[in-house]
Description:
single chain; alpha+beta; six-stranded mixed sheet; three-stranded antiparallel sheet
Amino acid sequence: MTAARPAARPKMSRSELLGRVLAVHPDRGLLNAPLLIVGVRGYYRDTMGAVGRNDRAVYDDAIFVVTPDAFVAFNANTDPSGYRKGKGFGAGKGMASLNPGVWPVYRLDVHKRGAKGAHEALCQRAGVVTVTRDGDPPYPETGMFGINIHRGGWGSTSSEGCQTIPPDQWPAFIATVTDQAKRIAPAGWRREVIPYVLLEGV
């Protein structure tokens, strides 16, 4: 069994995507970032899974890499792979979903360092994010949770709240991001903060 994904990559122009970013986040400086990652949750909500609803455990979202000279679209997952209701902020807390917003907190680093499956990824290293946790009702929490952008799996989207990309598209994604980071800051590209914008639907 494999995680469901679309037959083709997302189709959206640079101008349309940036227009949607600007409509939600009217900071034109964001559009001038030398490297910007934009996720769209529920990009395929009308053609995959339950119509009109964002689903978990499928690659029904989109992530775009935007640079002055590149615009590349990838299939993606911006949700956890399952549900886990909980309460509070300790061991019994609910599964996390990253909230839509602007998150200038990502750096190139190693996801799951020292563990099986460790790999280069975009990691939440430069600041906090706000998530919504599964609960009755769902509830917010802000902090350092390791909500990374990393390689997904074939049989699962491999997420406990991270943003993931199918394994066959991952090499192109991480190569594009790494190359641009090295252009921006040749001597300190691992310290370069890369903003991620997560939009809700299109």
